[in-house]
What we know:
The complex is a heterodimer of chains A (297) and B (279). With 297 residues, chain A is an all-alpha fold. Chain A has a domain at 63-125 and 154-285: MetI-like fold, CATH 1.10.3720. Chain A has 13 helices and two strands. Chain A has helices at 5-39, 55-60, 64-95, 102-114, 117-127, 134-141, 156-165, 169-180, 184-192, 197-224, 229-235, 246-255, 260-285; strands spanning 41-42, 50-51. A two-stranded antiparallel ribbon of chain A has the order 1-2. In chain A, β1 (41-42) and β2 form a beta hairpin. Chain A is globular and about 75 Å long. Chain B contains 14 helices and no strands. Chain B is mostly helical and 279 residues long. Chain B has helices at 2-34, 38-41, 56-63, 69-100, 106-116, 121-134, 142-145, 153-164, 168-176, 181-192, 194-210, 213-218, 227-235, 244-278. Helix content of chain B is 74%, strand content 0%.
Amino acid sequence: MKLSASGRENFYFYLFIMPWLIGFIIFALYPIAASLFYSFTDYDIISSPKFVGLANYQELFQDDLFYKSIWVTFKYTIISVPLTLILSLIFAMLINQKIPAKGFFRTAMYFPSMVSGVSMSLLWFWIFNPQIGFFNYILSWFGVKPQLWFLDEHLALWALIIMSFWGMGAGMLIFLAALQGVPASLLEAAKLDGASRWSTFWNVTFPMISPIFLFQLIMAIIESFQVFTPAYVMTQGGPNYSTRFYVYHLYESAFKNFRLGYASAMAWLLLIAVLIITYIIMKTSNRYVYYEGGKES
Amino acid sequence: MMNRQLISRGLAFLILIVCTAAMISPIFFMISTSLKTKSEMLLFPPTWIPQSFQWDNFKELFTNEEIKFGVLYQNSIIIAVLTVIGTVFSSAVVAYGFSRYRGKGRNLLFMLMISTMMLPYPAIMIPQFLLFSDMNWMDTFLPLIVPAFFGSAYQIFLLRQFFNTLPNELYDSGKIDGASELRMFSSIALPLSGPALATVAIFSFVWSWNDLLGPVLYLNSQEKFTLPIGMAAMISSKFRIAPWNLLMCAAIMAVIPVVALFAVAQKRFTEGIVLTGIK
């Protein structure tokens, strides 16, 4: 086989990336397009899809449950994501000092992150048990009356938010690595200039770790748009739809009620929401994100 | 000055102790419940340490005919191991392609690849479901395993970053020795990537191990269930027979492989850091 240098380069490039390229077309590109197509149809799996134009979207915007699922997801995201990020940064900074038993604290804070998925849901369902749960027991130390948690429509989502804080260790570990990458010379220079701790944080430390903060923020938001496991395992979206997350509503519409067209419309709106949020965060980020070594888009 | 620093460090230490205790207490409670008798687990206020340690709870979990925990465990291991093999192999190949060759359209394709990292699975799951059901793959492990053999964007990105740090001279010396392109990948790039490949393996194992939505869509019969879907079924009304102490045993058993992997990996990670530091 005789090939020019650039021909060789092309040949091997496409040879090596072939698995991804095929997978991308079958498992990403095709589903995105097909999803859009199905969103304009009425489809129940058994009979073939019927074209209905924008009817699914019209129905969505008149559907109380759809709005409810957006509200639940939004409320969860707006509370859980910033608090979890800030808490994990604070704990990373606390551990990143000259204190004894550093390694122990790091492991102990990280450990809960390994209890994830369904195991985490099982554990917290038990902890929030209204009659004999551990959480009510702890609250009783402070004179708080036992709460119903997952049986109370005003508390169920809050219980899930509390549970989400428990997983902050993973983010903390990443921030810890980022903090250790902040050059000591910069921190010393700030100290010599007599900068307070507060201003050192905002003018030196935070700018240095801001790209990682940004990445974590975007991924955390995208992830919290897709909460499914706790709703499926613990609450089935209840009580009174108070934990009916967007993706749980999508799942039930598609695979319980077999309304695949309607659910596909929801899928497309989710895709657009993720795109818009990512775009807005990236656009506004150059105000507070500092990239070492100059411009990097 | 010195005093103020000491006080603030002391304060940080105190806060850490209290918060660590709060973070660890659910795990303590999980372990303690798993070792209690049925009657003790229902006591309120709960006991911190079981009156007598019921190690048989774990035995019952595996021998109970209705829970079939051993089957769940086995299914989860089969799926996770095959997913890891597929992901590591294909992601390494693709990452190497992106890192080493300047093919036409590389930047565009790379951007596309990066953007799929943000693609929410629920947004594409309906067509995927229909695709796999047309292929008669329902109630088999295939829909959960086969996509892994086409690489995962996040892992490709991670490995590509790693391959980019390998110096070009390595390949030049390979060329002088007359090694083919495939040989350079398999006998130069791969052997140097141990820690990076281990990272990818662990991430993909944990991801597959914890995945609930995939098995919920594709697995229908109880003999095919994985741990997450099987454990979810245990607390749903159908299988409410599973008492809380056994459920906590199940949660612990499901978490153990993840903890073990991270424990081993921590050593590998630091080895990797030390190795690159020496160079």
